[in-house]
Specification:
The protein is mainly alpha-helical. The chain contains five helices and two strands. It has a two-stranded antiparallel ribbon.
């Protein structure tokens, strides 16, 4: 579903004139891209990014994508990983004291979770961040390959 949504957004944006392109259009594009990653459709997302003929228009918007999606994603991942690593440290200290910790979600307290379980949840989240980071690294690698080949074509290197 996310891939079709992304392709639909790309098609709609391709027909827009630059002055008609709104910030919300980019927000929808960004959200659809995130959903592709979350739903495990990274192979299809990478296919769209690798599109040699630029049918999607991604290569012309590469600067916006890098500045408004990839860089903030990097920052968010780094901040999230640091936060979860600190929580793991706190959880390990709580485990030593055998205290139970409480978690509040949307203003509702979830029943107490033993520190061992919290530690497993936190490690699982870090693993997920590592997976997202590896996909992000692959996307950046593909961008680098494409921009390098494009610049070599422009200066006549083969």
């Amino acid at each position: 579903m996310a891939v079709e949504e992304l392709q639909s957004i790309i098609k709609r944006c391709q027909i827009l004139e630059e002055q008609d392109f709104k910030e919300e259009d980019f927000g929808l594009f960004q959200l659809a891209g995130q959903r592709c990653i979350e739903e495990g459709h990274t192979d299809q997302l990478l296919e769209i990014i690798q599109n040699e003929k630029n049918k999607t228009g991604l290569w012309t918007e590469l600067g916006n994508i890098e500045n408004n999606f990839l860089k903030p994603l990097h920052i968010g991942l780094n901040m999230s990983k640091a936060h979860y690593e600190a929580e793991i440290k706190n959880s390990q200290e709580a485990q030593k004291s055998k205290d139970l910790c409480s978690i509040t979600v949307s203003g509702e307290e979830i029943p107490n979770m033993p520190p061992e379980m919290q530690l497993k949840v936190l490690h699982s989240a870090l693993f997920t961040f590592d997976l997202i980071e590896s996909v992000l690294a692959r996307v950046e690698e593909l961008i680098e390959i494409k921009t390098k080949s494009t610049s070599e074509e422009n200066i006549g290197i083969k």
